[in-house]
Amino acid sequence: MAWRILAALMLVVSSVSPGLAADTVKIGAVLSVTGPASFLGEPEKNTLLLLQDQLNAQGGIGGKKVEVIIYDDETDVNKAVLATEKLLKKDQVAAVVGPTTSGNTLAIMGKVADAKAPLVSMSAAEKIVNPVNPWVFKTPQSDRLAVGKILAHAKAQGYKKIAILTVSDGFGQAGREVLKEMIPTAGMELSADEVFGPKDTDMTAQLTKIAGSGPQAVICWGTNPGPAVVAMNRMQLGMKTPLYMSHGVASDKFIDLAKQSAEGIILPASWLIVADQMPDGPFKTLLTTYRAEYSKKFGTPPSAFGGYAWDALMLLNEAAKISGNSTPQGLRDGLEKVKGFQSATGVFTFTEKDHNGLDESSFAMVKIEGGKFVLMK
Q: Do 222 and 304 sit in the same domain of this protein?
């Protein structure tokens, strides 16, 4: 009789879905907590830990306690792959959030999809969700939305000749492809197309070539520290051509690095960084509450990148409510049915054909004035 009871118990244990204990949902996270992208990954990690506590105080995800398992990929693509394999095979998580950078996301998304676990990326490159993979979603606004926002502003200023300067990593080159596509479509001329490396410390040569092409505006696409170097070299060269940046520098870290040379730069950014300048309403309340709770716990306000982590975990929570369960399949199916969900980055509406779910309203246009991000009216 004893062996029959033991066999029955073993059958029950072996039938538990990946990512689930009897009363726990495991969510894995691959983040760049250290390395060059740590200014992105650190607020993401902090936000996930903050939300883990808040969700568990409210009953968890799908009525089960949520356990967020975080691995630091050190902004290294190989370590991101190894961390993902560990989450899927050893930890048997129900879903993965991250990675922080586009290149690392592109390297691991196939592995997560093959394991039939949903991935909610916190990286911006459009090719993460285009073409759509049934198991892959992302929370940052796509490059196309950011480019559209920049070009609409440039067009309103009467600019017709645009030069671009992009970093040669996954984020930069994904943005470059969209820029080269959309600038002519907007009726503008691409006067120069220059590239810099992620570790380059001087972009004088590229900026000199750009200046020689006679642009009316320059768009730099990348994440720190490169764009800060571009801003400083521009000032050193005495260039007066208006400079736009991508949403990849929408944090105080950029201003800290670029110092005075950041003045006057315009970029699309998540509303979180100008939450106090927004009109009153539910969205402002959500953002200011998140900022206050984060600041109280960690002693500094979150960046837009922390907001992407807020989105990821709260979207999984919403998915569990929609599907009625927190299995990998249930979370995936629930995500695809999310409609009109107000989150930290904007209002998400996913469909079978759209796994980003945001529109241009998720961006504010901001200008750096007096060492601060200022909402442009």
A: no
Instruction: Print the domain residue range for 168.
Output: 143-274+363-375
pLDDT digits (tens, 9 = 90+) for 293-320: 999 999 999 988 999 999 999 999 999 9
Same domain, 127 and 137: yes
H/E stretch holding 143 reads helix 143-156
Tell me which of 18 and 174 has the higher pLDDT.
Answer: 174
Q: CATH number of the domain that 110 lies in?
A: 3.40.50.2300
177/158 same-domain check? yes
> Tokens 């950041």 identify what position?
262
Q: Supply 284's token pair.
A: 């402002």
Query: Hunting for tokens 């736009």 — which residue is that?
Result: 244
Same domain, 111 and 190: no
Same domain flag for 147 and 269: yes
Q: What is the pLDDT of residues 46-82, one digit of tens each?
A: 999 999 999 999 999 989 999 999 999 999 999 999 9
Residue of 94, 184, 176, 87 lying closest to 135 (CA atoms): 94
Please choose, from the candidates 263, 254, 258, 266, the residue with its C-alpha nearest in 3D space to the C-alpha of residue 218.
266
- Is residue 41 within 8 A of residue 297, CB to CB? The reply is no
Q: What is this structure's pTM?
A: 0.86
Distance (Å, rounded) from C-alpha 92 to C-alpha 25?
10
